Amino acid sequence: MAFLTDEERLHWLPPASGGREIVLASHNQNRFEMQDGRAFLLKLFGLPAANRPQAGFAFPAKGYQLIALALLSPSRRLTRQKAASLLWENTGENEAFANLRQLLVRIRRAWPPERPLLESEGPLLIAGPGAEDSDLAAFLKLQQSQAVADLMQAIEIFDGELLAGGSDANGEFQLWLLSERSKLKDRFFSTVATALLEITRYGRAKEADLRTIAERALATEPEREQTYRTLIEAYGRNGMFDEARRLYDNLTDLLKREFSAQPSAETAAVARRIFAAAHSHSEPVVSPERSSNSQPRVAFLPPELPRVGASSELIPALVREVANELSRYRTFRVIAPHSSFQIVKPGGAADLRQVDAQYAVSAMLIPGTSTLSCRLARADSGEIIWAGEFPADDQKLALAFRLLSHQTAASMAHAIERDRLDDNRRQHDGAAYLRYLEGQISLQNCDLPRLRRARSAFRDAAATDPDFSATRAKIAQTFHLEWLMLGGNDPDLLLKARAEAAAAVSLDPGAGAGHWMDGVVALYQRDFDGAAESFAIAETLTPHAPDFLVQYADALSLMGEADAGWERFERAIELNPLAPDHYWWAGASILINRREFRGAIEMCGQMKSDESAIRLLAACHALSGNISEAEAYGKRIIENYPGSTAHSLADIPPFKLQADRELFLEGLRMAGIK
């Protein structure tokens, strides 16, 4: 983009022939664009510059100062007398007014008339429409926004001090300029803090956004310790502990090198808290023994067949087909028959240790018959856990080949899963299971003390039996519910919840609970693709578990599929009619997205404690026309979540559809939440 500046201050760049734009190498073009993609016509941050003034005219240096004065004055208005006295302090009043009139003429000549930079109203000068096309005006507007995209753009725009490089400013104006620079810098760092808090609110900010903010903030004031502290907290909330450590080390080196000092006690305390949290988010390392135990391996042995006949080719093909069918199941892994067939030596027994198999499938053609006998046995004890016989004459086998392979695979899979479940029951410590049940009982009512008691019980169970994956999934659920109940302002709780869910999946990939909670947390982190994938796996593994169904129902509703969510919710209630509180909470959430507000209120009436649902109740009563009841719930919200706004509360549910969010926001506002 072509910037044309006062010839007294900068080298004048004439317009390029043919309208081609000239880009100044010292500037980043993207930083001088408005939201609609147009270039800023006036640049006041850093070295002042004007973009495309009238041909043949240079923009006057004091014009930048006058525009900045107007934009930063109350209501963007200032008197001619104030402008004249600030810009020409050392001249007489008449001469100062004459200089001001001349400056205004030069500005009008240099600027397109359709969007004037300044307008006059009697003794007042007012920032005109053209001044809105400046980077300063854009920053002042965007930094007040609640939208993250606007805050990010405001941070990008602030690329230097206001009116940097000026040498003709007098004492009075210089004092004003220093004061305004300080105020603008305060606004910038406040915007940085707000943006960091917002983008890390769910613990999954984009690394590129964090890096952009860090670069701009540290470039603005490289030695500002509070900036480092804010960034360390943000990286910690986002689970990026290595980056947080790097920033703290950089700050420590900087302070030691430049000031022979150490980070302040406040910064050191923040760092200790963040680094301590890093340990609680680490996933467990699953031992090879546990890995093979949680997801067993199945080996197919070569069938024992006569030396001649078509069956000697067809039956091995059937065995391979059954193995392929079994490989679709998620609860165990199948060794390729090409390898497992080779572990049996002529005249010898199979050495299952070669392929680390926990189950072996063998088949033989019963002598003197056309019947194929198949067995599934445990590798460690030889115990047969499944057996079947099938007609194996060549004609029948060829006709029923596909159906037989499906049936055999399904039957074997059921036997393996049943055996693993029995083995799981035998392995889990009785005391651990008792604490697990105690946690489940505490989890039935959604209030904070019971929720934390439930987590304590689940943690005791996990400590007693580290291989009990369900406890880790339940710990994840308690962190997620606490995050909701505390207003969704602590991303560390979501990070802990997802780490616990990942731990549950690592311990037992074949159990649905870990995938289910991973989907729930991913949803609230706005990772909609990740949530859909985890829920799909969980539904495959546990299609009839009511706890899972109610969470999936809530997720579908939040992702814009309220009717599909309601269908699953009804299935969950059918399986668990005397449901705990969080079921009714989820049902009410679905009904508000179906615009059934009275039904949602009745649903909350099923809860033993409505503490977790007061936001829903406030919105539903308001949208139903029960304003007095809505306002009563609104007062409870203000008491429970001081400082929260309707916008911040509406941002807690991860609505995929903006219309659903706007409806909830309207209800909260009608209930008296500002």
From TrEMBL:
SMART domains per UniProt: BTAD
Transmembrane segments: none
Pfam families: BTAD
Highest taxon in the source lineage: Bacteria
The Bacterial transcriptional activator domain, residue ranges: 134-275
Protein name: Pentatricopeptide repeat domain-containing protein (PPR motif)
